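Hi C.,

You asked whether I'd gotten around to modeling the 261-residue construct. I have! Everything is below, sequence then structure, no commentary in between.
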Amino acid sequence: MSRSTVDSRSSARTLPPATGVRLIESAEATELLPDIYHRWQQQTAGAQPKPPIRWERFFADRENRRGGLTALFFVVHPDGYVAYRRGQNPSRVVVEEFIAVTDDAYAALWQILVGVDLVDTIEVRQARDEALPFLLTNNRLPKVTAHHDALWGRIMHVEAALEARTYALDTSLIIAVRDPFLDAGGTYSLTVTDGRATCTRVESEPDIELDIDVLASIYFGTHRARLFAAANRLTARNDASLHALDLTFGTARPAVMGWGF
């Protein structure tokens, strides 16, 4: 995840007119936001379900958790929402949560955000490869100020993990996984049909060899197999196998954890 700032004073926009977007009170937000989040979570790699206790804490919006900022404001679209605060200097907006199920919702919510009166700076956490820079006439306006890890994964059961997710490309690969710590590795046949995988242990020459931490890194689609190959942390029988692995583990949307724990 990255933290970025946007100078909204100079963000002349080419966005279409925002429709269906409105500012709502907390009481209405408690009714609308959980369903929108659930729909977003269902189509976003790595996103966690948000249990009722997390929603209760979120909407309670206790003053000692505001970091000196205002109470939450809520902007909602039928397919998305933004929860944000303003600073003691009202020209600063800090986005606490930005959820968009569709591209139309994403564009509409950003149009409203950059048009908030008297705002100079918007601070937001976002995944890599977000469309924000290209919603603005100057794609250099968003400035990345920090990067941070969201989730570290440790695969404990290779077959179960690889069969649990969906895939972007139908393919068949033999993958050798090394696990010197827990000895949970082995050589596996991964066959993907209509986006779903079957994974079984085999005794065959592998197309791909990698450590289990590399497998965990590419599992959610954020990190690319080709980059690990370039770093000599993944080896492939040939470039076709590497290309197939790289595409197969890709995701249509950036991986986002949803909330920290």
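If it helps when you're writing up: The mean pLDDT is 90.

Thanks,
B.
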